[in-house]
Structures are given as C-alpha cells and as structure tokens.
Amino acid sequence: MRLVNKQEILAQIDECAALAEIEEAFRTFARGEAQVAPVTHLAFPKADGECHIKCAHLGDDEVFTVKLATGFYGNQELGLSSSNGFMAVVSAATGMPLAILLDEGALTDLRTALAGVIAVRVGARRGSTTLGVIGTGIQSRLQAMLICRQLGFSRVVVWGRSPDKVSAVVEDLKAEMSDVSVSQADTVEALCAISEVIVTTTASREAIVKSPAVRPGTHIVAMGADSPGKQELEPALFSKASHVVVDSLDQCTEHGETANALKTGDISRSRLTLLGEVLLEGGLDRAEEDITIVDLTGVAVQDAAIARSVWRKLKQAELQNH
C-alpha cells in the first residue's frame, strides 16, 4: 500500500480534467450506476467540529474510495486549516488497500468547489457576471476563484459575520484575481440586492438568507448544510423557487438545506431534481425571472472520481519512471 502526501497529490491535479470527471460522476450516480453508502456523521460541539465518512464505487471501476473528512471551524483562531482528512483507494477486485491519499482535506475542498462550479453553470441565467459569496472559510475563497476562473464571472461580493474575516477574504481574492472586482457587503440584504448568483458556504445553524431579500432571477447554491442541524436558507425560499436541484435525494432530504424546507412544508420531494439528471438533460430549463436553488451536501461519487483520477495518474507516473 502506498502513502501519498499532499504535495504529491496536488502535483497530479488537473482542474479542468477533475471538473469533467466529477460531472461524469454525477451523471453515473443519476443513472443508478454507482454504489454510495450512507454518510457517517460525528459531531464535536465543544470544539465546533465534525467528521464525515463517505464511500462510493463508480460503475465497474477497478477501485473504490473511502473518505474521512473533518471540519473544525475554530481552527482559524489557532492558525490551522478548518478542514482535514484523507482518502483510501481500495481495489474493487481484491479488497486490498492500494493507497492512502494524505491530502489533508485538499481533495475534499477541491471537489466541493468544483461541484459549486457545476451547480452554477447548469442553473444560472445566461450572462450572469456578479457572484455573491456568503462565508469566510476555505470554500468562500475556492468558490469565488473557481467560479470566476471557469465561468468568467467578473465581480464578487463577500459577506460574513466577522468584518475582519471578510476583509481578509476580499484581500486574498484581490491578490489571486487581479481582473475581477472584489468587494465587501455590509449586510446579507445588500449582497442579495446585487448578486445574480449566491453561494452560501457557512456552518450556520440558522437561516442567513431570508426570502424577501432574494430578487427574481437569482440562482442560489447552498453548500453549508451538509450535516444534521445546519441551515443557511429560510425555508420560504423553496416555495418561491421554480427549480430545486439536489446532489443526492437521500442526503438532501435527510440533512441538507432541503430537509428544513420539507419539514416546514415549503417543498415536496416530488419537486426535487437530481443534479446528475440536470447534467444529462444539458441544464435547467429556466426563465429569466425564476429563482433557482441547488442544494449540495457533498456526495461520495465526487470523492471516488477525484481519488480515482489521482490514483491513475500516480500509477501512470510510476510506469513512466521505470
């Protein structure tokens, strides 16, 4: 079994190729050609932390993936990353562990951000250029950078509970994207008023984005509610939405943003569309004034796709060196 460190892993990453592979993984999932185990959640409230364990096998791939990911949101105060973890690549023929990818959460961060890119591309109005990002952690930065880089957005507005942390995000994004206008919103309402696309990336346990603040035509990608008890959107938003897309029906209705709206009666399961199905159909059939929502809880097929990609490139590099 091979232990692969973060530096080796990142050297194998091709962002555009990873994006295409994760898209295909969502399609495979929608076609019913993937095995996905129920997510295991552990909560550590005293440390403001959590652990998720996810595993999946895509089609008849030669390998499957088991992923452990942690999010400890007080780590920023300690000068540590809020996310960590590793992925195990296991033979689907023998059950033998082939590699442990010690990515320290980097692959999870990347596959999460790439899912955001996919969710924006399939659902936002054509010609959208202004992105609102709610949150100040790793995903707020990655979502902004990847959406702008992959989809050509030219303006980013950021809001978070801590003005100092928002300022830090804004400065980081300005340094990374000199051709993009990046600014700070004083309130969530101000962000909603100017954003064509809103991405929420927090670990909030109460609604941040309220229904009256969201203008017609807005596309919302909700990423934060990935375990029980989390919430970023007011449930009433779901009753206003013309389309609600979920990455996993089981996960989103059990612990995603959609679960909150189901409890209040603002959405029914029959109105939900799987992200992979939208990809198979070529995108959402939306009107200009429609409010649309994509609920992303993070599906193990994303982990399987990105881990498989790294494993195959490592094997290829090994063959070339011999």
From TrEMBL:
Gene3D superfamilies: NAD(P)-binding Rossmann-like Domain, ornithine cyclodeaminase, domain 1. Pfam families: OCD_Mu_crystall (PF02423). It comes from the Bacteria. One of its GO terms (cellular component) is cytoplasm. Belongs to the ornithine cyclodeaminase/mu-crystallin family. PANTHER family: KETIMINE REDUCTASE MU-CRYSTALLIN. This is Ornithine cyclodeaminase. It comes from Roseibium album.
